[in-house]
Specification:
alpha/beta; two-stranded antiparallel sheet; Alpha-Beta Plaits; about 25% helix; 6-stranded mixed β-sheet; Rossmann fold; 2 domains
């Protein structure tokens, strides 16, 4: 049995979990990284005989709008699907249910789903260095369990509720740039939503920014940063989402 995996992974955590799972189940398949805008410009040709596995981050209890639109446009029908949501130790809320509904509309069988934890994109003090060894072990165990569901006409139940959590309005806070910037273009080339100008990396369309912090992590000169306008969000996360270590939740 072959697989087709797709992941939107600005900080690499969704990708890490997806690859751990597919390596546990399959010997043959293909991975599609949907993180950069160019990767989403044309539709993927999905092998109709493959198991489809999707991994996306959770933003305020929902999947990113840009990926919701892309998943709805996928040409996939009557195939086994595995769904993975990555969140930063707060809550995954309706993300898995949202994905499940998209693929049920395509008459697909959701044979397994999982909510895993990754280091929060906005602050490294929440779920630091996750997924860690324990998370990876649980991802492998999930792969072993879900393998038994391949080819069965089932649809697993997942967490979440309808109507979905209302999406938050964009905060229109984009990254700032200090004088360390040498216009190497690395941040612009790696922005998942194309919010940073390739002509001048100091120019940012903040209305497009999803606060994934990929530009900050990619910059080799520490030129990109988010100013104090995100301080209240960071304070909330560090106050409310660090006392308890949440563990992956799986549905098979």
């Amino acid at each position: 049995m072959k697989y087709t995996s797709m992941y939107f992974s600005p900080t690499g955590t969704s990708e890490k979990i997806i690859k751990t799972i597919v390596n546990e189940i399959f010997e043959e398949g293909i991975n599609f990284d949907l993180t950069l805008p160019k990767s989403r410009e044309k539709q993927i040709l999905i092998d109709p005989e493959s198991v489809v596995i999707i991994g996306v981050p959770v933003y305020s209890g929902r999947i990113p709008v840009i990926i919701e639109t892309y998943l709805k446009s996928l040409n996939v029908n009557n195939q086994d699907v595995i769904l993975i949501a990555l969140y930063g130790n707060r809550a995954y809320e309706d993300a898995l249910l949202e994905m499940k509904d998209i693929f049920k509309e395509k008459n697909c069988n959701v044979i397994g789903a999982g909510a895993f934890i990754g280091q929060h994109s906005i602050t490294g003090n929440v779920a630091s260095n996750r997924p860690d060894e324990n998370d990876i072990a649980l991802a492998k165990a999930f792969g072993i369990k879900v393998k038994d569901n391949i080819g069965k006409n089932i649809s697993v139940e997942v967490g979440g509720k309808r109507p979905y959590r209302e999406r938050k309005s964009p905060n229109s806070i984009g990254p700032s740039t200090n004088d360390n910037c040498n216009q190497c273009k690395l941040c612009a080339e790696n922005c998942p939503v194309g919010a940073i100008s390739i002509d001048d990396c100091k120019i940012v369309d903040a209305t497009m920014c999803i606060n994934c912090f990929r530009c900050v992590k990619e910059c080799t000169r520490e030129a990109k940063y988010f100013d104090e306008r995100l301080d209240n969000i960071i304070k909330f996360l560090e106050t409310n989402c660090t006392a308890q270590r949440l563990e992956p939740e799986i549905f098979v």
